[in-house]
Amino acid sequence: MTSNNTFWRHDTFFGVCEAIGQDFGFNANWLRILFATALLFSPKIVLIAYFGLGAVVLASRLIFPKREARPAAIEARGADNDAEMAELPLAA
Predict the structure, then answer these.
(1) What stretch of H or E contains 48?
(2) Residue with the larger pLDDT of the pair 89 and 18
(3) Which partner for 54 in 14, 27, 73, 86 could form a disulfide, CB atoms 3.0-4.6 Å apart?
(4) What is the pTM of this model?
(5) Is the CA virtual torsion 72, 3, 37, 59 positive or negative?
(6) Span 45-63, mean pLDDT?
(7) How many structural domains is the chain composed of?
(8) Which domain holds residue 56?
(9) Which residue has the higher pLDDT, 75 or 28?
(10) Where are its TM segments located (predicted)?
């Protein structure tokens, strides 16, 4: 059983970068690289920022859950040009 919630997935570390990437429409790997590079220079600030963003992401996902897309109703009628099918010439 897989969960669509990035916070609870087994393959992410709280899903912070993935969730932010999805929300803002960019590849989460860029944010991961930024955090990893910044972690080398100031681990304390990066960890505080990461867990702070994690709290914001968790709160936003709990307060505003993503709605499931409903399938559109399929109409049974055919296209307008179905009745007027013309014979096409065969290629040589």
Answers:
(1) helix 43-63
(2) 18
(3) 14
(4) 0.58
(5) positive
(6) 90
(7) 1
(8) 16-63
(9) 28
(10) 33-60
Domain for residue 72, yes or no? Answer: no
Closest CA to 53 of 92, 24, 75, 27: 24
State both tokens at 71.
Answer: 């399938």
One-letter amino acid of 18: E
What span, in angstroms and rounded, lies between the C-alpha atoms of 92 and 75? Answer: 38
pLDDT-derived band at 66, boundaries 50, 70, 90? confident
Residues 18, 12 contacting (CB under 8 angstroms) = yes
Q: Round to the nearest angstrom and report the end-to-end CA distance of the chain.
A: 55
For the beta carbon of residue 32, count every other beta carbon within 10 angstroms. 15
Residue entry with tokens 């307008």: 80
In a domain, 58, yes or no: yes
Cα 76 versus chain centre, distance:
32
Say whether 4 sits in a helix, a strand or coil.
coil
Note whether residue 33 is domain-resident: yes
The contacts of residue 85 (CB under 8 Å, 6+ apart) are none
In a domain, 82, yes or no: no
